[in-house]
Each structure stands twice: as structure tokens, then as C-alpha cells.
Amino acid sequence: MTSDTSSSVPRPLGTSGRDDGRTPVLRPRPAGAARPGSGRRPDADLVVDCAVYVDGRRIDPTDPHDALREATERDGFVWLGLYEPSEGELAGIAGRYGLHPLAVEDAVYAHQRPKLEQYDDGIFMVLKTATYVAHEQLTATSEVVDTGEIMVFLGANYVITVRHGHHGGLTALRRSLEQQRELLCLGPSAVLYAIADHVVDDFVDVAAAVEDDVDELEASVFSDRRADDIGRLYQLKRELMSLRRAVSPLENPLQKLANRQVDVVPDAMRSYFRDVEDHAIRVRDQVGSLDELLTSILQASLARTSQADNEDMRKISAWAGIIAVPTAIAGIYGMNFSYMPELDWRWGYPMVLLLILTACVLLYRGFKRNGWL
């Protein structure tokens, strides 16, 4: 690109920098941070699916190299689905679709927080996905929430989805969306809405499953059974934090799509994104409530542990006090002095035993009445 066309280089809104006509390049990253294509699973391809949609209908077959041209000529859009592309693999697609290098970098390296970035000719959105990891019993090392990412490039005639993680597949969603012709007629933003709605629905399911685990731990903490629940509580709180990091930042991007003017998102789609935003807010509040409840349960567990330790100490002290009586008396009469009056008394031994028994019974009743035993 020459210097006289530097103004055409898209830049994120609000991003400052020199306009020197040079195409932005990827920022340096530590070695091994990117996902190389050779590390992909053998059963997974770079292009998961590619289709052109015209008037809400899918046109097959479609060559990924010719999909954008065909979609533009027929006034439709192409939906290209990718799975964990490497930098080199995505670079070719980025050149063909005119994707911004900074957005491409984020899509390759992943590990992004949910966000929405707007460029001159399109938008780039990051969504965190979540799934509940089933387990027979919650332990201090159980993995409860597994997260992934979906990056969406959205333009006037294309939508490109880049998925990271072993869950969050969009095949079923694509098939379901293809049955809704009226929605697909609204353009590529309909795909973005469907993905966002799908992601938030998964959040709802995960939050409901985690809530069951929270209820189980709450019942365990307040039961009469003595168990070490602190480790399990802390682990669940850590897993819930992963879900919270996926849900909470999503509100702001959805709010922008619902309330602000975005060139590639028609006004008819705003109400759809507003509905997804409402669901995301409810999930965010639910996750926040679960986190607060876990904090309260953790504090209660610590208090019960401390109380149990105090009760054990009281019991030990009570029994030590009872045992001290015969020990003291036996110690006194075990000194074997020659002039101890009771040693020559015929009833001395039974009287001492009776005294020991009486003192022990009185102490036991006293400790029992005061809740020490």
C-alpha cells in the first residue's frame, strides 16, 4: 500500500497512532503463543463450513476462495467458519476479505476478553464460550467450567467466525438458523445475533448447573456430618470466576450493538441484540449472586470449623478435668509417707474410691449441663 492511500487503512475507533501510511503489523508475541496449524487435531480442518446466503437461502456448493465474490455479485453474504487457524492460515483469508491486522492478531492468539471493535468497513467481536464439565462428585480439584472463544468478523457481505476450544461448535446453530429465512434476510448481523444468543443461552445452562453444585455444598456445610468443604468451596469459587469473566464484559458490546448506530448492523437488528443484552444481564446477576452466596457459605464453613475445634477443645478440657480428680487423689496417697492417718484406716480404700467416683460424677454432670460434653 502506498502512502497516498493511507487514509483507507482501517483503524479501531478511539485508537491513537501515527498515520504514516504503513500497514499495521502484528505486535511481537512470546514464542509459542500462537496456535500453529500443525497442532490442530487430525479430525479438524481449518474451514469448518463455508456457505453463501442469498435472500435468506443457502447456496451450495461454494468454494471458499470464490465465496466472497459470489456473495457480492448476488447481493448476499458469505458465512465462513474457521477452527483455531494459525497466523499463516488466517493471513491469506485476511488479505482476501480485507480484515484489519490487529483484529487478525487477536483471532490467532485468542485469550481475549469479550469486546467489540469497530473499523471503517466492519466490526470485530470477541465472545467467550462456556460449558459445564459433568462430574460425579465435586472435589477440591474438579474442573467445573470450561471456557473457549468465538471471534466474529462482520462486514457488509461476509461474516467470519473463528472458534477456539473443544466446545462451542456452531454446526447445529447454523442448521437452525438456516430454517429462519426471515432472520437471515437481515444480513450478516443476523448470524452475529444468533451466535451471541447461543453463547448467552449456554451461560444460562452453565449457571444453572453451577447453582446445583452450590446448593449441594451449602447442604453439606450445614449438615451434621463433619466434612472438609473448604477446599471444594474454594475450587468452585475459582471456577465460577472463569464464568464471571466470560459473562460480565459481554454486557458492554451488546449494549453498543443494541443502542448505537453501527453501519453493518441494520436498525431492525437492534431489538434482537437488546433481547440478548437483557438475558446477559440476568445471567451476570445470577453469577454475581452465586459468587456472593459462595463467599457466605465459605465464611460459614470456616466459622463451623472453628466452632467444631472449640467444641473439641471443650470436650478434651472437660475429660482432662474429670481425670485430674482420681489422678490427684492417687498421687497424694501414692506418696507412701509413714505417718498418713488414712493408710491404717480399715475403710480408707473404699471411701477414697467413693470420693473419686462422686467427684467424677458431679464434674461430668456439671460439664454436661454446660454443654462441654
Give an overview of the whole structure.
Helix content is 50%, strand content 14%. It is built from ten helices and seven strands. The chain has helices spanning 67-73, 87-97, 101-109, 171-177, 181-184, 188-221, 230-247, 251-259, 270-333, 348-369; strands at residues 47-54, 57-59, 77-83, 115-119, 122-132, 145-155, 158-164. A seven-stranded mixed sheet has the order 2-1-3-7-6-5-4, with helices on both faces. Helix 6 (188-221) runs antiparallel to helix 7. The model is unreliable at 1-44 (pLDDT under 50).
Structure summary:
The chain has 373 residues and is α+β, with helices and mostly antiparallel strands. It is 50% helix and 14% strand.
> Largest beta sheet: what is the strand line-up?
2-1-3-7-6-5-4
Integer average pLDDT = 82
Bin the strand percentage.
Answer: 5-15%
- Tell me about the largest β-sheet: 7 strands, mixed
Secondary structure category = alpha+beta
The sequence of SSEs as H and E is EEHEHHEEEEHHHHHHH
Total number of helices:
10
Oligomeric state: single chain
As a percent range, the share of helical residues equals 40-55%
Low-confidence stretches: 1-44
Q: Which outline best applies?
A: rod-shaped
Determine the N-to-C terminus distance: 86 Å
Rg over alpha carbons: 35 Å
The total strand number stands at 7
